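sorry for the late reply, my laptop died twice this morning and i had to redo everyting from scratch. anyway the thing you sent over, i finally got around to it. pasting the sequence first so we're on the same page, its 161 residues, then the predicted structure underneath. double check i copied it right bc i was rushing
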Amino acid sequence: MMGNMNAYPDILLRLGLALLAGIVLGLNRWIHHKSAGIRTHSLVALGAALVMLLIGSFPGADVQAASHVLQGLITGIGFLGAGVIIHQANSQSIHGLTTAASIWACAILGATFGSGFYVLGVCALSAMLLILIIGGPLEQLTKRLLGIKRSSEITEEPLDK
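ok and here's the structure:
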């Protein structure tokens, strides 16, 4: 794929869509003052797209090779996500789970675009952005309607606070 000059527009499209996905998801996290923003999400998405493009360019590369790369990517990105999760011992609360999940999903999204699955990637990006935008307000509405006193299922605060 890399030696063919006709492949360059497709490569640029794949990397460009991965970059766009990283920017969109990272911008959402940045707007909400989270530790991983545009640069982190963009680099994760680009890196994932690049590794999928790279494995696809090897002579004799097959589905099994791509599967192994994806397995390593999914596992490895979990360590980056773990770095943004903060446990506060004084309140028994955990913060950063959504950002960690968005970093992980962003890597898979980058791999999706890098593999050339444009429609799947756009649909997934739309769904991810939708949940990042309406997820918080939906949780707050549910909390109000059900009379839940805790701020999250992760916290160990007493119900009658």
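The CA atoms of residues 77 and 104 lie 6 Å apart.
thats about all i looked at so far, will dig more tmrw
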